[in-house]
Specification:
This protein is mainly α. It has 30 helices and two strands. It has a two-stranded antiparallel ribbon. The two termini are 27 Å apart.
Length: 575
Amino acid sequence: MFARDESKVSARPAWGRRLGPFCLLLLVVQATPLLGQRWYRPYQAGVQAVRQGLQEDAPADSAIWDQAIQQLEVAVNADPRPSRNKFVEGTIRERYFPYLYLGIACLRSGKLDEAQAHFRNSRDHGEAEKNRAAAAELASFESQLSDRMPEDVRAAGDEPVSDTRVFEEKVAEAQASLDAGRWEQAIAELDEAERINSQTFQAQNLGNRRDTARQSWAADKAGQAQRLMDSGSLKQARPLFEEAGSIWPGLDEAEQGLAAIRRREQQYRSAKGQAEQSFQSGDYAQTRRHYLDAQAAHPEMAADDNLAALLADLDDRISALGTLEDCKQAFDQGDYSQAQTLCARVSDPQGQLYRERAEARLTFQQAEQAVRRGDYSGAEDLLRQAVGLDGDYADASQALEKSRDYSRALADAQSRYQDWGGNLQQSAGLNSADEALTRAQGIDADRFGSDSQAQGLRRTINADLDRIRRRTVRSPVDDSVRQAVLRLFQGQIDEARQALEAIRKTNPRNAHAHFFLGVAYATSALQQAAGRDFQQLRSQALEHFRMTLKEDSDYPAPKRLISPLILGLFEEARE
C-alpha cells in the first residue's frame, strides 16, 4: 500500500510546500469563467453600445440606447455588485460600473427618472469612489441630467412619488406571496410595484427579491419535471424543464434534466437501430434484447412505436426456431447466447446437454473478462462453474488448473518468506521464497505482472536479498514487526498501525517499529485531503521518523519500496 504508486502520488499534496499555491491557482482559473461569463459579456456589450452612442457621428435614434439598457440590465441581474477590479477569467480583471452606464443610456434615451435612479445607485454602490474617471463621468452626466429635469423636480432634489401607499401595499402583497411560495404571483406583484415607482423599487433593491422568486419558481418547475421523469413520464417532464430554463436561464437542474432526457432518447434510438440491424441478419434473440433495451430507455417512445407488438412477433419467430438442430448449429457457429436460448426450448436430453455446454462457454468468456479486469479470484470461480457445466471443456479445465497452480505457488512463496523470519544471516529460507515466487511468475507472467500482492512480495524479497548481498547486519526484525509490515504491504494500514503501536509500547526503542509506524501514518496522510487530519497524520509520521533516527542514525530506509513523498518526509526528519 505504501509501495510506489505514481497515480496516487500525483493526486496528493506534496507536504503542503510547493503544490498548494499552484493547485489554488488552478481552482481559480477553472472556477472564475463560470462566474464571469454571466455578467461579463452583456456588460461589455452594453458599455460598447454606450460608447458608440456617445460618438459625434452616432445616429440620433434610440435603438442603440435600448440595446445598451437591455444588455446592462442583464449584467446587473447576473451580478449587482460593482467593482473596480472584478475577476473575469483566471487572473484577468475588469472595471465593472454597470449603474453609471445604465444612467448614461437612460439619460440619452430620455428616461430621466430611471437615469436619476441609476446615478443614485452608482453613488450608493461607491462607483465614483472606486475610480477617478468614473467619478468625473458621473458628475458630468448628473449635471446634464439636472439641466434636463423639470424645474420643480430639481428644486425638490428627488423624484416625484407616484403613489407611495399603493407601492408599499403592492410590495407587502409580494412579500406575502414570497412567504407562501407563490412565486409567479410574487413576480407579477413586484413587476407592478416597479411600474408604480421604479426609483424606489431600485433603491430598495427589490429586483434581487424578484430574482429570488424567479429562481425558486424555476427550481419548483424543475422539481416537478424531475418527479415526472423518475416516474417514466419523460414527455411531460421535458416542457417543464424547458419552462424552468426559460424562467431562470442556466438553472443546473433544468439543464441536467433536459440532458438526461436527450440521453435516454438517444439510447432508445440507438438500441432500436441495433435491433433493426440484428433483425435483418436473422438474429432474433439479439433483436429481442435490443428492443428490450430500447423499451427500458424510453417506455413512452416504445409505446408510440408499438414495440410490444414487435416483441410478440419476435417471440413467435424464436419459438419457431427452437429446435435441436438450430440449437446445435448456433453452438457450432460460436453463438453460445443464441444456442443457450434455443436449447432451453428443447425438451430432448441433447438439448439440455448443448444448453449446458453453451452456458459453460459463456461462463468461460465471463472468466476471460474478469481476468482482463484483474479479478482473478472471480475468474477462478467462473472457471469452476464452467468445468462443472461441461467436464469435457478442455480450455476451461486447463485455465482453472493454471489459476490454481499460480495461487498455490504464490501462497507457498508467502509461507516460505514468513518462515524465513527476516534473519539476514540465513539466506536459504529467503532464496526458497524467491524460487517459489519465480515459479508463480513462470506459471502466469501476465497475472504476476498485474498482481499487486505478488509485486509487493517481490520488492520485499529483492530488498532483503540486496541487504544480504551488502551484508548489512542490524538488529533483526522480530516476528511481530514483520507480521505488521506484511499487513502494511497488503493495504491493512489501520491493523498494521495498531500492531506497531503495541510493539512500541512494550519496546519504545525498537527502530523498526518506529520507522514503519512513520510509513503507516504518512500513507494515511496521503489518502487524506489537505486539512486538519492531513497535518495531524503528517506530524505523527515525522515524530516516528525522528524516533527511528534517534535509535539508529543510519537507519536504511528501503528506498525501492517506499513512495518518494514518504522518503522525502523521512529525510526531513533528519534535519
